[in-house]
Design brief:
The protein is mainly beta and 331 residues long. It has four helices and 16 strands. Strands 3-4-8-9-11-12-13-14-15-16 form a ten-stranded antiparallel barrel. The protein has a two-stranded antiparallel sheet with strand order 2-10.
Length: 331
C-alpha cells in the first residue's frame, strides 16, 4: 500500500515532559492518569503576501488539505495518525492548484510554570491565489500559476512563562487538565526560528536562509461556564529582528536585516466532563517586515474540531508504562 498516495501520515508529537504527574489542586483537576482517545478534524492555511503599494501584490498559498486524525494520549505520550480524505471539499484540487505538502511536528514541555514549545515544519508547492489581479478575465475553473518547487523548511520554538499560577495552559493545549474557576494570565514569551527557502525557476536555483527572534506579550483568559464549558480567547503582539542571507546560482551572496512585527491570537471553545470532551479551536499567526520597499507578510490560519473520550488505562498498559518509567524517569 502506498501511504503517501493514500494521504496517511504517522506523527508522534506533543511529548509533554514533566518530572511527575500533576495532582489535583483547589483550582485545577488533573487527568494525567487516564487514557484519552480523540478524533480531530483540522486544517492549516499558509500564505505569503508580497506587496509594493496597494495595487501591486502577489499572494502565494498552499493547496491545503483538510486532515482527519485519531490520537491516543496517556500521561506524557501522545500518538497521532492522520490522513486527508479526498471526499472532503477542497481536498481534490491538484489539477487546478498543483500539489502541496504540509508536514509539522511539535514537542511541548511544561516545567512548572514555563511552557517550552519546539517545532519542525515543511511546506512545499505554492500557487498564486490572486490570479484576477493579473488576468482580469481569469475564472476559478482555470488553472492557477504554480510554483511546485518552492519549499519552506523551518525549525523553531517559543519559551513562555505563565505569570498566574492558577491558570492552566494544559486545559487548553493538551486537555490533560481542567481549570475549575475562570482565570486569566499575562504570558510573556520569546519566539525564534530558522527558515530555509528554496526554489527553482527555469533551472536556476535560489536559496534564502532567515533567522528570526522576537519578544512577545500575550494575555490568555479561560472562562468557565457552569463547570463544564470553557471559552478561552487569547491575543499577543511582539517585536523582533530578522537576519536573512540569500544567494542565486552563480551570483553574489546578499545579507539583510529587518525589524519584524508579530501578532498571534485565537479562540478555544470546549465541553469537558469526566469522560467525554469536545470542542473547537481557531488560531492565527502573522508577521510582517519591509524588504527593499516591498512589504512581506506571512499568515497562518489553523482550525480544529475535536471529540474525545477518557477512561482508566488497562492494567497491562499502566504496568508496562510504570516499568518503562523506572528506567526513563522523565516519562
Amino acid at each position: 500500500m502506498n501511504f503517501f498516495k493514500a494521504g496517511l501520515s504517522i506523527l508522534f508529537s506533543l511529548f509533554v515532559l514533566q518530572v511527575k504527574a500533576q495532582s489535583d489542586t483547589l483550582n485545577i483537576k488533573s487527568y494525567a492518569e487516564q487514557v484519552m482517545i480523540r478524533l480531530n478534524l483540522d486544517t492549516n492555511l499558509e500564505k505569503y503576501i508580497l506587496s509594493q503599494g496597494k495595487n501591486d501584490k502577489i499572494e502565494l498559498s498552499i493547496n491545503n488539505k483538510t486532515r482527519t486524525s485519531v490520537s491516543v494520549d496517556y500521561r506524557v505520550i501522545s500518538a497521532t495518525i492522520s490522513f486527508s480524505p479526498k471526499f472532503i471539499p477542497g481536498n481534490n484540487e491538484d489539477d487546478l492548484k498543483g500539489k502541496s505538502s504540509y508536514t509539522d511536528l511539535s514537542f511541548r514541555f511544561f516545567p512548572k510554570r514555563f511552557i517550552q514549545n519546539l517545532y519542525y515544519k515543511k511546506v512545499k508547492g505554492f500557487y498564486v491565489e490572486n490570479m484576477k489581479d493579473f488576468i482580469p478575465d481569469w475564472k476559478e475553473t482555470d488553472a492557477y500559476l504554480q510554483f511546485p518547487d518552492l519549499k519552506v523548511l523551518s525549525f523553531g520554538g517559543t519559551t513562555s512563562y505563565v505569570l498566574n499560577k492558577n491558570f492552566s495552559a494544559k486545559s487548553i493545549y493538551t486537555h490533560s487538565e481542567w481549570q475549575k474557576k475562570s482565570s486569566g494570565s499575562w504570558i510573556p514569551y520569546l519566539d525564534y526560528d530558522v527558515s530555509f527557502f528554496t526554489n527553482t525557476i527555469n533551472e536556476v536555483k535560489n536559496k534564502e536562509v532567515q533567522y528570526k527572534i522576537g519578544g512577545n506579550m500575550g494575555y490568555f483568559y479561560n472562562c468557565i461556564i457552569k463547570d463544564k464549558v470553557n471559552i478561552a480567547p487569547y491575543l499577543s503582539v511582539g517585536l523582533g529582528g530578522q537576519f536573512s542571507s540569500s544567494i542565486e546560482e552563480n551570483k553574489k551572496k546578499e545579507n539583510e536585516q529587518f525589524v519584524t512585527l508579530r501578532m498571534e491570537g485565537g479562540l478555544h471553545v470546549g465541553y469537558n466532563s469526566e469522560h467525554l470532551l469536545f470542542g473547537a479551536r481557531m488560531s492565527f499567526k502573522t508577521y510582517t517586515y519591509q524588504k527593499n520597499q516591498e512589504a512581506v507578510e506571512n499568515n497562518n490560519l489553523y482550525g480544529l474540531i475535536y471529540l474525545g473520550y477518557r477512561f482508566a488505562p488497562p492494567r497491562v498498559v499502566k504496568n508496562t508504562y510504570d516499568k518503562v518509567q523506572k528506567k526513563i524517569p522523565v516519562l
